[in-house]
Each structure stands twice: as structure tokens, then as C-alpha cells.
Specification:
The structure is a homodimer of 246-residue chains. Chain A has 246 residues and is α+β, with helices and mostly antiparallel strands. Chain A contains eight helices and ten strands. A four-stranded antiparallel sheet of chain A has the order 2-6-4-5. In chain A, strands 1-7-3 form a three-stranded antiparallel sheet. In chain A, helix 3 packs across helix 4 and helix 6 (184-191) crosses helix 7 (195-207). The two termini of chain A are 29 Å apart. In chain A, 47% of the residues are buried. At the A-B interface, strand 5, helix 3 and helix 4 of A face strand 5, helix 3 and helix 4 of B. The structure holds a DNA duplex (30 and 30 nucleotides).
Chain lengths: 246, 246
DNA sequence: CGCCTATTTGATAGCCGTCAACCGGAGTGG
DNA sequence: CCACTCCGGTTGACGGCTATCAAATAGGCG
């Protein structure tokens, strides 16, 4: 099935979680939706809203964040194309956090009602949604461990590992290189550190030969050592869910 | 319907998320299960396992935690009776964290297969499961904000607010009193602090008149002030989901 | 060229961790 | 009944990691 609906990406991701049959795939591709373009840094959902549609990221990067009163921000998740940005709003009536685009991005907006209907009528699709939500939750738990119990070097190293693996979709080899889609301030908001300290920490990792940087390009000259420092175990990403690998 | 199956608690909780009909309730109550007793601090699920059953907490308290290599622990969630302790294991093949009992506890173990079957056959039950999982995820996001962006006083105050509200099941009034089900070490593991600093922080909150303590009993002499300090907004708990309140 | 944002760097302060000791209650065994 | 042990809680001294403040540099874009 080679379908060029913008939702093909969503189907591929869901299908990697659980085997969808052709009818399931067709129903997903036929979901009503409209594609919206967002400028870098613009908001998709704001806390307290009751959105009528769910957003699927098609192109670009996005994140979800919460604020405290003094203005500090905590990024609670990071998203790549194919990710559902607010599946939680399918069933919860009120957004408890903000969804924001990182770079400029294309997003498919699907009416809540259509998604709820497909989940109700197609148990396998509902299961795929559930798995997707559970992986999201698993990542959040790892982030909690990261922020709560690791020092700055480990936190940043761990986040870099995760971003690289998720963007690449597989385990990496030495010398891997990628473009970091976020600023140092945003790295800080994701790790519970200040941008100044992120800067020093990146410099420190670079001095140790664990990363190389030119602008926002990041290279891993020694993936094994970086992974060891970060104690990065990709199990929590549940990448190969369908294979049943543990 | 007054049923005294141990699972009645689960039904009540799910029914508070979405209106179940009598057939749904009956099917839930008829789920095969066996009730197991756990001594305080014993493990229910260990990271890396592939459990065949899901655990529903009936009596007592439990938490989920992850470890880093140096032995530090991060508690990623806290659970009260009626909570599903590892719904994520319904669909993910490998536990990515540990589930442990806090106090001595009774737990209903339900086979994965039976839960998956009921979710597949009863869309409303599946939806209730999904809502329950999303609320879990929402709490994890708030914890991430707590640990990443609040200082020790706020973190501890926020956690105390959450525990009190969840144990009581509603918004509190001034003078509320409850028994803290965890040690100071565990409070530390939940907030990313050391037990020593938890001790000092509790003492500090007490000195400010925000809490009173005798052994593990905690009282809120000034709920409004405590809530203000913690910036505690119970929205993220999605308590009154079914009413649609925001 | 000038403005604006992101990055970089230095100096200083403070929150919280670490280490160590002591206390107190609960349970155990003599 | 009392001594002992153990765990959880309490307290003090000290150090270090990270925040804060401030300023300089670099890069992107009009």
C-alpha cells in the first residue's frame, strides 16, 4: 500500500506498534483532516483549552511544556514527525499543558469525534493508540528519572542520546551526526537546567571527546562512551514493540 | 448495583471517568482475578519482566520507581486503592520500571489476556482504560515540572497537596489532616531530593505554619497558603472528568 | 550596517548534597 | 523486664553543583 495521504506517516507509526489490517489502514487514511502550517515557536494547544481536534505532526519538530508562575518552563516531551501531539485530549476534556512547535512544521488536525469513532469501531486501532500513549508515558517516566536523579552531564548526554535515536529510528553507530532541532535554552527547559549551564555542560562533553559540535550539528565520536555516561538504555522507547523484543 | 467483588473499587473508579452501562460493569466484575497480599516494601513487578497479569491495588499504597546505576531511585508515581498499577503492561511487552508496594497491600491480579479481551469487546471499557492511562501520564508531567522547575519547599508542598487531595478524593478545606503513607526517604525519591533535605524542608514548612506534624500525621492549618506556595492546581488530576469540568 | 537572538564566558552566591553523629521508637531475644 | 538492634528521623558542618547576574561575542536578517 503506497498511499500519499499526509496521514500515511501516522499509519506507518501505528503499524509499527501493532499489526493493522488493510481495513484499519484504509480507515485511518480516510480520517477527515486538514493540514495546517505553523511558524516556528507557535502554539498548537494552550493549557486550559478544550480543543476539538487532535494534532498529528507531519513535518518539523514539536514539544509539550508546562509553566510555573515565575515564568520557568519545563518541557515534558519532544516530538518527531508521525507523533500524535495531543492524543490525551482525545479523552480528557481540558488541556493540562501547552503544545508548541519547535521549528516550522506541518500538522494534520483530525476532529476528536472522528478519532473517537475509529477507536470505538476498530479495536486494533484503539490498541495502537493505547500503545502509542503508553510509550509517551514511558518516555515521561525516563525524563523524570533524568531530571530527578542525574547530574547535568548525564542529563544532557541522555537527552542527546534519546533525540538522536528517535530521529534516526534505530540504534546508532559511532560517528553518528545529526542536527539538533532545539536551542540551548530549550535543552535547558527539557532537562531542568539553565541555558547557561547547558552551554557549559555541552562544552564539557565536547572537551571530553563525547560530542563534537559545529553550530547545531552534533556528532558522537564515541557513541559507546556517551551511552555509558548517560546510562542510556533505549528499552524505554519501546522501539521494536511489534517484534516483542525486550 | 452493590457488588462486593474486590473489583468493585476498579469499577467505581472507571465509572467516574466515563459512564459504564450495566453490562460493562458486570463484565468488569466478572474478570478472572486472584487477590494477593503483599508485605510492606515488596515488589509487584520488576524492570525487564514480562508479566502475564495486571495489578489493581485494592488496599494499601504503592508506587512505581526507576533506578540509576549508582543506586539512586526516582519514584515516578504514587498509587491509592482502585488504581491500576501497571496498565502499561497491558500493551507493552517489557516492564520499563519497578512497581512496589509502600505499605502492606492487597492487590488483584488480572490476566493480561482477559483485560485485552474486555478492551477489545467493550469500547466504553477501553475508553475508560485510556482515560485512566492519560490521567496517569498527566500526573507524571506535573511531577516532571515539579522536579525540574520548583525548589525544595515548593516540591514538597506540591507533593503533599497532591497526596492529600488524591487520598481524600476531593478538594480540601483548612485544617485537613491525613496520615502520610511514606517515609521521608520516599518523599525524597519522589521529589528528587535527599532524605536529609526533605527533613529540613518539612521542618521549614512547619516553622512557617503551613503544615503541622506528629509522627506521620500531617495537618494543613492553612490550606490556601500551602496551595499558593506549591502553586497547586488540581486540574492535572482530572478528578471530575465525567462532569466535563475544566 | 544595525538590530535581535543565540551562544559564550566570568564572577559570585546559594541551594542542596554529603558525611557524620545522635536520637527515639518498635521489635526481638535473653 | 531489660538489653540490643534496627530503621527512620533529626541535627550540624562542610563542600560542590548549579543558578544568577552581567557582559561580550557571534550569527542571521532586514
Amino acid at each position: 500500500m503506497t498511499d500519499h495521504s499526509p496521514l500515511a506517516l501516522l499509519v506507518r507509526k501505528l503499524n509499527s506498534h501493532v499489526a493493522l489490517d488493510e481495513t484499519d489502514k484504509r480507515a485511518l487514511l480516510d480520517l477527515p483532516h486538514n493540514v495546517r502550517y505553523f511558524k516556528a515557536a507557535s502554539h498548537i494547544v494552550r493549557e486550559g483549552e478544550r480543543p476539538g481536534a487532535c494534532a498529528i505532526l507531519l513535518k518539523g519538530f514539536a514539544y509539550r511544556q508546562k509553566l510555573v508562575e515565575n515564568g520557568s518552563r519545563q518541557i515534558v516531551s519532544f516530538h518527531i514527525p508521525g507523533d500524535a501531539l495531543d492524543m490525551q485530549q482525545l479523552y480528557l476534556d481540558c488541556a493540562d499543558h501547552n503544545v508548541q512547535v519547535l521549528t516550522e512544521a506541518d500538522v494534520a488536525m483530525i476532529p476528536r469525534s472522528a478519532l473517537r469513532a475509529i477507536a470505538r469501531e476498530r479495536p486494533t486501532v484503539a490498541q495502537a493508540f493505547a500503545i502509542s500513549a503508553q510509550i509517551d508515558a514511558s518516555i515521561a517516566r525516563e525524563w523524570l528519572l533524568n531530571v530527578g536523579r542525574r547530574d547535568a552531564r548525564q542529563r544532557v548526554a541522555h537527552l542527546l542520546c534519546e533525540i538522536a535515536v528517535r530521529m534516526d529510528g534505530q540504534v546508532l553507530s559511532a560517528g553518528y551526526e545529526f542536527e539538533l532541532p532545539m536551542s540551548q535554552e530549550q535543552l535547558g527547559d527539557a532537562t531542568g537546567l539553565t541555558p547557561v549551564h547547558i552551554n557549559r555542560t555541552l562544552k564539557c562533553l565536547e572537551g571530553e571527546g563525547l560530542i563534537k559540535r559545529t553550530k547545531r550539528m552534533v556528532q558522537f565520536p564515541d557513541w559507546a562512551a556517551l551511552r555509558r555516561l548517560a546510562e542510556f538504555n533505549p528499552l524505554y522507547l519501546h522501539l521494536s514493540q511489534q517484534t516483542g523484543a525486550c
